[in-house]
Each structure stands twice: as C-alpha cells, then as structure tokens.
Design a protein that fits this description.
With about 300 residues, this protein is α+β, with helices and mostly antiparallel strands. It is about 35% helix and about 20% strand.
Length: about 300
C-alpha cells in the first residue's frame, strides 16, 4: 500500500471513529484540523471544494459549501453532479479528480448543510467526467467494496452504487432539514429552551408522511426528544398564535414531577420562534395541525 492509500484509509477510519460522537454531521473546524499521520497533520478539507493535502498525490475530498457558488445536485440517475473548479478544464484540481476517476480512487464527500456543519459520506467515487458541462459524476459506495485501480466495475456494481447514492440523497435531505431547523431556533427546544443539541430533533408540523408535507424550516419546530414525542402523539399542540396547549385529559392526570414540570407546566406558554419571518412556523400549517390536536383532545 502506497502512502497515498495509507492516508486515505486512515482518513476513513478517523471519520468512522468520530461519526458516533458527531452523529455524522461534522463541525468544519474539526475537519479542517484533521488528524495526525506519522507526525504530519492531515486536514480533510480546505478553502476550495476539491482538496488535496500536501502529503498526497490525488485529492482526498470534495465539498459542497452551504449556499456556495456551485449548483451541485443529484441527476435523474441518482448520481451527484459535482461542478469543476472554475471553467479551466486543465486546472490542477480538475485534473486531480479526473485522475481519481481513472484509478478508482475513493474520496470523501462533505455536504454543507448550514454554515460550519457538514454531512460526511465516504467512500465516494468519480465515475464520469463531462468537460462540456464542467461537471463530474459522483457515486457513493460502501467500505466493503473498495476497488483496485485495475478493476473493471460490473453492471451490478453500478446498480449498487446508484441505489446507495439514492438512499444517501434521502438521508442528506432529512439531515439538512434537521440541521436547518435547529440552527433557525438557535440550537434550543422551542418549548422548554433545552440547549443540548444531541437531545434535539426537528419535528414536522405537517407530518412527512402526508403528501403535501415539505422539508422547509417553516414546516418545522426544534424540539427536545420528549416534547417531540409529545407533539407527535398530540399530547401537546401549538396554536396558530404560537401558544402551547396540553391535552385536557393529561392536564387532569396526577403523576410524578416529569408530568408536572415536563408537560403540564407547558400549558399556555408561548413557544420560541426564529427572528426571521421566513423561518417562523407557517400559521396555516399550525392551524391545520392544531385542528387535529383538538379532535384528539
């Protein structure tokens, strides 16, 4: 195994170890700092989207910045279209990705969700190069299938990668919804103001299993896990004017301190809402949800 391959595998292992702690959404500063390899510091990303650490011959990662200048997107075939750096086909970064394609070199893909936070996926592969459109085609795969440079991929390999990439696309949208909602609420529960991010969820106002639900911030509430569960089960509701209501039968219950302080004391409290109007809960969505809550109560 050459040094380039060693560093690549070390990067994958480092990401795997950190994934449990960061729940696969990594802070940018941690990625920029990277890890130590044989006495050298190896960053995982840099200021440009296509990144090659000093010690490596070919790029290690590609990044889509949140709200960045490039329109990276998934095509109808479920593969990612990743934009060239600039318009010069022969820029060293673009040439590096082309070489990674030729030699079946695995990379890391960082997708910026909100400023400073990136969803990480690895290994990913460059499987196509379209200089006319200034884009590379990118596929996700799993660690069990790391091809060697001389390997020729079968139709089954292509189908597997298309399926894996499509599932990751769905997860990316789900995680993007969560991070954007929690970011809009300044990383706190809209009901109780709990600030432990690891205990926060993005709750849908119009449930995501309904056909007209949408993964936008105005259809979300940042809630701690207990209040998310209570909201989903219609124990708690939110009126269109942003007040929390507790279901009447729950208000009449007598139980321990969690019921009293965790639920009953929420009654008639006003929720926290984002400062920007476009991020605030959609009142029509709240009204529709609140009608269901009243029927259950």
């Amino acid at each position: 195994m050459n040094p380039d391959q060693e560093i690549r595998i070390a990067a994958f292992n480092w990401l795997s170890e950190k994934k449990a702690f960061y729940d696969d959404v990594f802070p940018r500063d941690i990625l920029a700092k990277g890890f130590e390899f044989k006495g050298e510091r190896i960053p995982l990303l840099g200021p440009q989207g296509i990144f090659k650490p000093r010690m490596m011959e070919l790029p290690l990662s590609i990044t889509t910045a949140p709200g960045g200048p490039y329109d990276d997107s998934f095509g109808q075939d479920n593969f990612l279209r990743y934009r060239y750096r600039g318009t010069n086909v022969f820029h060293r970064d673009n040439v590096g990705l082309h070489e990674a394609m030729i030699h079946n070199v695995p990379l890391v893909y960082f997708h910026g969700i909100v400023p400073g936070k990136y969803l990480a996926e690895w290994p990913v592969y460059i499987i196509g190069d379209d200089p006319g459109a200034l884009t590379f085609k990118v596929a996700m795969d799993i660690m069990n299938f790391l091809p060697q440079p001389e390997d020729v991929l079968s139709d089954n390999d292509v189908a597997r990668r298309a399926y894996i990439t499509s599932t990751i696309k769905v997860r990316l949208h789900q995680r993007s919804f969560r991070e954007k909602v929690i970011h809009a609420y300044q990383s706190q529960c809209a009901f109780c103001r709990l600030r432990h991010v690891e205990l926060l969820d993005a709750a849908h106002i119009i449930p995501d299993n309904e056909p007209d639900s949408r993964p936008t911030v105005d259809n979300g509430l940042s809630l701690c896990k207990i209040h998310h569960a209570a909201f989903d089960k219609y124990i708690l509701g939110v009126s269109p004017d942003y007040y929390i209501k507790v279901r009447s039968d729950v208000l009449d219950e007598n139980d321990g301190p969690m019921l009293v302080h965790g639920l009953k004391e929420m009654h008639n409290q006003r929720i926290i809402i984002p400062r920007k109007f476009e991020l605030q809960p959609n009142k029509e969505f709240l009204e529709r949800r609140f009608e269901k809550f009243k029927k259950v109560g």
